[in-house]
Design goal:
- With 110 residues, the chain is mainly β.
- The protein has no helices and seven strands.
- It has a seven-stranded antiparallel sheet, with no helix packed on it.
- Strand 1 and strand 2 form a beta hairpin.
- The N and C termini lie far apart (36 Å).
Amino acid sequence: PGAGYSLRYQTFTGYALMESELRVGEDMEKGYGLGGGGSLGLLLGHGAWRGHGRLRFLDYPLGDRRESFLWAFEQNYRVARNHSLSLEFSRSRDFGRWESTAILFWNCYW
C-alpha cells in the first residue's frame, strides 16, 4: 500500500509517492524485510524526446534491517513511427552494496 501526489505543468509532471515493501527470500538472514519510504520523480517531454528522473528511498525496520536507495534517469527519443532509442542510467544501494547501470536500447515496434 502507498499513496501519491502529482502536479502537471505544460511539459513536465512531478510526483511524490509514499511506498511500502515486503521482501521475502532465503538469502535474507531473517527471511523477510518489511519497510517503507518514498519516491520523487519528474517526467519531462519536448517533441520526440521524453525523460524520467527519479529518487527512491526505503527503510526496512522489520526483519532484515537495512536501507535501499535508488536514483535513475531514463530517456527516450522517437526516431520514427516504429523506432525509438532509450538510454537509462541508475545508481542504487541495496544490502550495503552500490550498483551502477547504463543501458542503451533500440526499440522496434510492429
